[in-house]
Amino acid sequence: MNGSWFLLLLATYPWLLVSDLVSDVMVDTGLVCFLTGAAVIAPARRLGRGPAALFALCVGLMFEARRPIADGWLAFALAFAALSICGPQRLLRRPAAIWMAAIGLNAAATAIWFLLGGFMAASEGSQVSIVNGVWFGLLQVMVAAACAAVAAPFMLRAQESLMDRLGVPEVREA
Amino acid sequence: MIREEQGAKASYVLLTLVFLAWCFGPSVIRRFTREAFVEFQAPALELAGRSRDLARYWELRTRSTEELAEAGRDLGRINAGLELRLIEMKGLAEENARLRTLLSYGPAPEYRTVVARVVARDSTGWWHRITIRKGRTDGVRPFSPVVFGNQVIGRVAQVHLNTSDIDLITSPGFRCTAHLDGDEQRRVVLLTGTASGSRGSALVTNVPKDYGAPAGQEARLMTTGIGGVFPAGLLLGHVDGPFRPTPKGDFREAEVTPPRALNSIREVAVLVPVYPTPGEQLTESRVDDFR
Questions:
Q1: Residue B266 shares a structural domain with residue B204
Q2: For a Cys-Cys bond, which of A31, B11, B164, B176 suits A49, CB 3.0-4.6 Å?
């Protein structure tokens, strides 16, 4: 296991920072520009299982660190997702498929952190409105999917070009 | 092919084991990991905050000299008024200290003010938080009140090396006792943040049925000072909308609007208690007992 996953993590962080800054601008809407899920796809396609899982763990923990979410749940969910992507690598060869996978994983990860956030709010003894939660959760998932749809092509291209420079082999035939 | 499948299975098993170790292992590991990832992100957030300040600085530089002179004049007038208030306050503080000595009361809670710039905001249906550019190295402590002028903004949730996370008063974890304007009996009500959707709101509960808001104005909520966390007399918000009966008990509740647009705030002041708060004393004594 070489350090390419860590260099990839450092190169991906600016994208995540920009998504945080966009969330800051959108703060009045109460919606978050979430890109963490989409960031996992390209490394999981080309890196081995171990580095891909480590990358996904770190990216997930980075999102969780500043937010009141149960420690590690999103990160491990992303790591399991990364492992499952490492299996059918040959299915993720076409750019359209990669793009769709990025949108899908980003939306799924959003659903996970939103549920975890609701759980934490309820565990603090707050009155949680389930109707509002479901409605707002759906809206957040759609926003996350839209964010991934817009930003993922650029982020994936940047990640792919870095992996090319680092000499990470292309997707193997299964 | 078989080796590949075995390798895949082994990696799933290994990750599951790591996950179980993470969940049931000592909490210090989780805390350390969280702190490490916060510190990893802190310099970038600080840089983003400083560049925003720089942009604001250059924006202000475009103002004309006349505008600046006018603002300076206004500030001068306000300063003159505040100087008079300071003299009055000094006299009141001395009188208060004398009365406390006469009645054998303990010392009034004292706070050190740490002014901090907001570097990031984070808001969802479940939490409303801001991150400020002051942390442990500046003496910020967890659960310290965060204010802007005489208005409560929130409470310090987590303190890191150079940054701190603040739970705004609309965040679900926020709780504070309050007095309502116009209640001559000074009964204590409870303010809690609610997790009810995008726009942050708070709820005042335990409002007595016979309470009537002052005619022609919104009822204000002020801190009580009970519990020693928030100083007394700070503004928590205004009651927004009618009081409705609570499902349990003989009380009423109502929505509360925060005193400021919390999402646009740029600078706050953290009131760090000079002496350990009752909560900190309790925690310290528990740690000593454990030792």
A1: yes
A2: B11
